[in-house]
Every structure is written in structure tokens, then in C-alpha cells.
Amino acid sequence: MSYNKPNIASWFESQFFKKKMMTPMGIILLFILALGGAFLAANDLFIFTFLFSGLLVGLIIAYICIFYPLYGYYIASAFSVFIFYPNHLIGREAISLSPVLEILFLMVLIGSYIRPSPLAKSNSPLIKTAISIALILNTGLILIQVFNPNVHTIVIWAAMFRRWIVFLIIYIIAYRLIDTKEKLFFFIKFWIVTVFVIALYGCFQQWFGFLPSEMNYIMSIPGRFDLLNQGGNIRKFSFLSDVVSFGVITGSTAVIALLFAIYEKNKRRQYTLIFMALVMLLGMAFSGTRTVTVIVPIGFIIYGFLTIQSKKTILTLFAASLVALVVFFAPIHNNATLNRMRSTFDKKDESLNLRERNRHYIQPYLHSHPFGGGIGTTGGLGGMVFPGHPLADFPTDSGFLRIGLEMGWIGLIIWVLFNLAILYQGIIYYFRMKNQKLKLVMVSLIACIFPILVIQYSQETVGQFPGSVFFFSSLSLMKRLLEFDGKELKLI
Predict the structure, then answer these.
(1) Is residue 140 a part of any domain in this protein?
(2) pLDDT tens-digit profile of 327-352?
(3) What is the value of pTM for the model shown?
């Protein structure tokens, strides 16, 4: 069944995209806009010029998201990288662009149903997968949390639920829009290049220092500088919200780039992938987040388990082991970045021991509250919104612990089941597949995602943009990979 766009949409597309405003109507419109902008500027009303320009750009982007949803998906994904950067340039927390991003993804979802792809259909719906079932269970638990008697307001719950719905939207639209192998490989390339740019700016911050506005941003919140200043080296965060998000996305994407480089036959592309991976690894190191140091080893270990019969796997693991020995045991003791990474496994480190004591201290509360103390009750947010709550200002320093305390041991069990569903589905699909190139994509996604799940033990690694866009998109694309492989088998 063909889709016919409304007349106004067809006119808009014809004027802006096909004819590029080179029509009498387009020229008249541009002339009117120019006169209006000049009039406002002459009367010192620059703010209205900027507002109108922003509105015009917003309307164009909204149109693209609805009528060209695949382009809209990548626009929203690219936008997710920079939603925190305006605050870095302003020098303080003043602008929240997260709602704008959420609206963009919502419009992309609407567009994916207004202009559905004929190739997006599947004999087995996405909802029947193990990951989807786990997501539904977690959604149900979040809904139940609105009745948690331990909190007196649902403001934080509403914000968290809205963000979770956006994650589900991303999960759905990635599956609906990326419905060919060509689109899938573009998705991988897009994220490798995007994270390379993120890492490159983090390296710029390390080598040339923060911009004055970025230093003002760091100093705008009391205690932030002391938290970032470790061993005389200020931890870097690039365009992103925090050092953990920066370290996680650069480290995990470096694993994908390295695995693709191992199997790349074209030398130029292979060297390019290795270079980009090295820049990402530098960005990960400059984040100063000790936990992310284990991302690459864990990623290569799971890769080794799945492909142990391959000679390339043996050589890769051997080379990775040599690099790890050099990084952790080379006689270099005056480098703050290396020293920070090496402290990951230092059992005498007081901050690590403090986190362990905190876990044991709070365990009785977790055991006695099956539905938790309520969403948003831990950490500094809990201290501001729920002062006097037993969990207020408690530093969880762990994704698993935060979920266990806020959503109870029942919520923790469901979240662990979600993590296991990801691993189970990825591994089962990998061994069912026959096409070697598609299997490479699958094992790369598993090797990227699995470390993120593991380090939730000591960091909150799932839930921040832009990493969550790639994370939830990849989960649904696992099923697409199996479908692409199945279609090839039918052709043979």
C-alpha cells in the first residue's frame, strides 16, 4: 500500500529539498525573511532573529524526522553527543536540551509508522525476544514504583519514567529503520566515526587544556574540581556530561573498531580503524575512570570465548596480553594517566575500600525493602529532593547498587535478568548465524556491550546520552542480524 503525503508536505519537500528554494515562491520567502531579519537587527531585536532562525531550523528538522525518519534518527543521534556542550561553553548548568532530544526521537518514532519501510516486516516480532520481555518486565516495575510509599513526590519518578520510555523508543526505531545490511554497516561506521570525534576532543582537552568556559563549568559546582583532579591530572569528559560516560563510550567503541580492523583486508581501512581505536583508547585513559580500564580486556575475553577456534583470535589475545603487560608493568612511574589506570587493581586504594564498606553497610536496607526506597532517593539528588530519607546522600557508586536500593531486590533481580537476556540472546544468535561478516558484527556488539554490563558493579554505565542511543539501538539490531543471515540462507 503506497503512502501519499499531504499536499503541504509535498510542497515543502519540493521547495526545500528538490528545488532547493530556487523557485519564485522560494525566492519571495527568502526575501521576506531577509527583510524581517534586517528590520529586527536595526531595532536591536537580535534575540527575535535568533529565535525565529531557531524556529525555522526546528521546523525543518521536525519535517525530516517525520517524513525521513532514518535521517531523523541520525540527526537525533548526532544531537545527543552535544546536548551537554552548550553548558560547557556557557560555563554553568543553564540549559537542558534533553527534552529536545526526547522530542526528536518521538517524532522519529511517529515517522517510522507514517512512512514504514516495506523491508521492516519480520515473521517473528521484536517483542518476542528475550531482551524485549526483560525490558517489558522492567517497565512494569518502574510503573509500580509510582506507588512506592517511601517517597512523597513523583517528580523524579516521572522524569525517570520519561527517560526510560525514550530508551524503549530508541530500541524500537533502530529495529524499524535499519532494515538492510547496508544500513546496518552504515550504523556501525556512523558510531565509530562519532565516538572518534568525541575521543579526539577529549585528547585536545588533555594536550591543550580546557577552554576558559569549560574551567568555569568545572568550578561552577563546589567539589567538582576536587573530584576531577586526580594525581595532579584533571580528568577529561569531552563534549559529554561526565568522565564516566566519556570513558565508557570510547573504551567500548574502541573494541568494535579493533575487532573490525583485525578482519579488514583493505590495508588503508585497517590502518584507519587502528588509528581511530588508539585515539578512543587515549580518550578512555584521559577520562581517568579506573573502572573502564577493564572494558577492553573483558571485551577481548568474551570475543576469545566465542571465536577460540580462529587463529586470528589466538594472535589477537596474545598481542593484547603483551600490550596489557606493557601498560601495567612498564617502568614508567611519572605519568599521571598510567598511574591512575594501574590503581584500578590496587587493593590498598582507600577509595575502593570505602566503596566496599558502603556496600556492606547498606545491605540490610536492601534486604528489608523488596521494592526499594523509591526512584531518585540515593546520592546527591536524594539529598536535595528527599532530605531525611534513609538513602539520601548515600553514594551508590554502582549501577547495580543504585537499582537495588531504589527499586528493591526485586528490581535488582529483573535488571540482572535483563543483563543475562542480552548475553544469552547475543551468544545464541551468534552461533546460529552462518555469514562470517554478519557474525563479526554480532561478536563485536557482544564484546562492546558485555563489558558495559560488567562494570555496572562499580559505575553507573547505562542510561546517559549518547551512549544509551548506541546501547539500546544495538540490542534490537541483534535480531536484525539474525534475520539478515536467515534471508541469505534462504537464497542459497
Answers:
(1) yes
(2) 655 566 566 665 665 565 556 666 66
(3) 0.86
